[in-house]
Design a protein that fits this description.
The complex is a heterodimer of chains A (113) and B (110). Chain A has no helices and eleven strands. By secondary structure, chain A is an all-beta fold. With 110 residues, chain B is an all-beta fold. Classes of the chains: A mainly beta (113), B mainly beta (110). The A-B interface holds A 32, 34, 36, 41-46, 49, 60, 93, 95, 97, 100-107 and B 1, 33, 35, 41-45, 48, 88, 96-103, 105.
Chain lengths: 113, 110
């Protein structure tokens, strides 16, 4: 079946630094990828829709300058959390629009100290 | 904006008991998907329902899509400890975006 990977799986960083998370579709091409955020014991909240070769579409309330998204190829989208702060600590999950449905990556747990 | 609510938030059952989670959307959906997320894991796709009134079964799991395409349910017959996790419904809008429900966390005691 369709596989989506994320890297890194866990990252701890200092406040003020930037962190890049990669989302790759391994065996299919994805014109559209999605980035979600999940707080502990909460649901997934869509942050943005990433379209290959064009600008991402951000959901209401998500700062585009804070969460930079680049979808440079049909198999890779990146999310960069800029100038991270402790409140950015969360579980970030990507998904890729695949053959039948969206396929989710394993997630990246970000902890900002 | 669109909201998708699930009840109950949490349920603790004894192994062998049945379990049902209900999903309600504030707007009509083009289709609905169900996911299971184990503790520490990511959502795993279970099924997609498209037609009004559709019922699908996967072994002990029965999924139903309401006639008005605004609600759905997942029923597990004779739960097992392997059913532990959080079950999310996700409504698909006209823009192919997923709006996740609030989730129901299931705990099964042996």
């Amino acid at each position: 079946g369709a596989v989506v990977s994320q890297h890194p799986s866990r990252v701890i960083c200092k406040s003020g630094t930037s962190v890049k998370i990669e989302c790759r579709s391994l065996d299919f091409q994805a014109t559209t990828m999605f980035w979600y955020r999940q707080f502990p014991k909460k649901s997934l909240m869509l942050m943005a829709t990433s379209n290959e070769g064009s600008k991402a579409t951000y959901e209401q309330g998500v700062e585009k300058d804070k969460f930079l998204i680049n979808h440079a190829s049909l198999t890779l989208s990146t999310l960069t959390v800029t100038s991270a702060h402790p409140e950015d600590s969360s579980f970030y999950i990507c998904s890729a629009d695949g053959p039948d449905t969206q396929y989710f990556g394993p997630g990246t747990r970000l902890t900002v100290l | 904006g669109q909201q998708v609510m699930q009840i109950p938030q949490y349920q603790h059952v004894q192994e062998g008991e049945d379990f049902t989670t209900y999903c309600n959307s504030s707007t009509t959906l083009s289709n609905i998907q169900w996911y299971k997320q184990r503790p520490g894991g990511h959502p795993v796709f279970l099924i997609q329902l498209v037609k009004s009134g559709e019922v699908k079964k996967q072994k002990r799991l029965t999924f139903q899509f309401g006639e008005a395409k605004k609600n759905s349910s997942l029923h597990i017959t004779a739960t097992q400890t392997t059913d532990v996790g959080t079950y999310f419904c996700a409504g698909v809008t006209g823009f192919q975006k997923l709006v996740f429900g609030t989730g129901t966390r299931l705990l099964v005691s042996p």
